[in-house]
Amino acid sequence: MAKNIWVFCEQRDGELQDVAIELLGVARELADKVGERVVALLLGHGISDKAKELVGYGADEVRVVDHKNLDKYITEYYAQAVTQIVKANDPSVVLFGATSIGRDLAPRLSARLWTGLTADCTKLEMDDNGNLMMTRPAFGGNLFATIICPDHRPQMSTVRPGVMKKPAFDKARRGEIINEEIKWDDSKAVVKIVEEVKEEKTVEKIESAKILVSCGRGVKDLKPAYQVAKKLKGTVSCSRCLVDTGVLDHQRQVGQTGKTVRPDAYLAFGISGAIQHLAGMEEAEYIVAVNVDKTAPIFKVANLGIVADAVEVMKHLDKML
Ligand SMILES: Cc1cc2nc3c(=O)[nH]c(=O)nc-3n(C[C@H](O)[C@H](O)[C@H](O)COP(=O)(O)OP(=O)(O)OC[C@H]3O[C@@H](n4cnc5c(N)ncnc54)[C@H](O)[C@@H]3O)c2cc1C
C-alpha cells in the first residue's frame, strides 16, 4: 500500500531552495496526521552534504541521487531518477515547489507515473482515508477548489514558494540517509546544456523582504514609496495594476499571478484588495492599509486601516522616520 509523504527538495548550484524547506514543514504535518514518514528526495551533483540539513528541517529519511547527469537540471535525467525511485517505493504523496523546475518536472512525472497533479496549491490537508485535499484558486481566483486524487498514487501537487511557512531547524533531529543508484538511459536524454546565461536581477527579491511598501493604482507618485521603503530597510512591491500599466516590473508584483509574500509588515497603499492580490499577501504578519475608500476590501485583512490619501500618508511617514 502506498505510504509516506515525499518532497522533491530542489537545489540550485548546490543551494537548497526555500520552497523545499517550506514543503518539508507541510509534509511533516501531513505525515504526523497519518503516522507516516517524511521522505526528502535530493538530486544533483556534489550535493550529498545537504542531506543532513533536510533531516533538521523535518525529513525522517533522505534519498540522495548524487550523479554528474544531475549537475544541471535536465528534464529527462531528473524525470528518470524520480520515476525509478518513486516506482520502487510507492509513496502516498509527492510534493514539488511550483518553480520553473518543479513546473517542468512534476507534469512529466505525473504522465510517467500515471497519476494526477494539482498545480499551485495554497493549502494541503489529509482526510481520514489518506486522501490529500489539495486546495487551489480556480476561475481566475474568484473561488477555491479542493481537489482529491482517490484512484491513483502518488498524489502529487506543486506549491508556490512562500505559500507555506518554513519550519524551524532542529539540529538534534536524526534521520536516515540513503544513496540511490539509477539505471540511466542516455539515449533518451537528447537535450544538452550548451551555455548557461544567468538572468541579472534588477529588483530586490520581494519574497525575502521583511517590510514591503506595496503600491496600487491609488498611488500616483512612487517617489515617497521608495523613500519610505529605504528608511524602513524594506522593498517596494505592487499590485498587478502597476505592472500591467508598465509602471513597475513584474518581479515586484504580489498576488496570484505574481509572488506570494510573508513579510513582517505589509504596507498597502492605494490597493483595493482584490482576491487575486490578497492570495499573495494575506499571510503577512502585520498589514497596514491606506485607502481613500473606507469600504475597500483590503481593510478586511488589515490589522490597521487608515482612510486617507496614500501619497500624503507616505510623505508624512517619510518626514517622521
Ligand atoms: C486571473 C487573474 C489574476 C490576477 N492576478 C493578480 C495578482 O497577482 N496581483 C494583483 O495585484 N492583481 C491580480 N489580478 C488583478 C486584480 O483582480 C485587481 O484588478 C488588481 O489587484 C487591482 O489593483 P489595485 O488594487 O492596484 O487597483 P484598483 O482595484 O483599481 O484599486 C485602487 C484602489 O486605490 C484606492 N485609491 C484611489 N485613489 C487613492 C488615493 N489617492 N489614496 C489612497 N487610495 C486611493 C481606491 O479606492 C481603490 O481601492 C488578477 C486578476 C485576474 C483575473
Q: Can you walk me through this structure?
A:
This protein has 321 residues and is α/β, with parallel strands linked by helices. It folds into two domains: 5-188, Rossmann fold (3-Layer(aba) Sandwich), CATH 3.40.50; 206-320, Rossmann fold (3-Layer(aba) Sandwich). It has helices at 18-34, 51-56, 75-89, 100-112, 223-231, 240-244, 275-278, 298-301, 310-320; strands spanning 5-8, 11-12, 15-16, 38-44, 61-66, 93-97, 117-121, 123-126, 132-138, 143-147, 155-159, 176-179, 211-215, 235-238, 265-269, 286-291, 304-307. Strand 16, helix 8 (298-301) and strand 17 form a beta-alpha-beta unit. Helix 3 (75-89) packs across helix 4 (100-112) and helix 5 runs parallel beside helix 9. It is elongated and about 65 Å long. Residues 140-141, 216-218, 239-241, 253-258, 270-272, 274, 276-277, 280, 290-293, 296, 309-310 line the site of flavin-adenine dinucleotide.
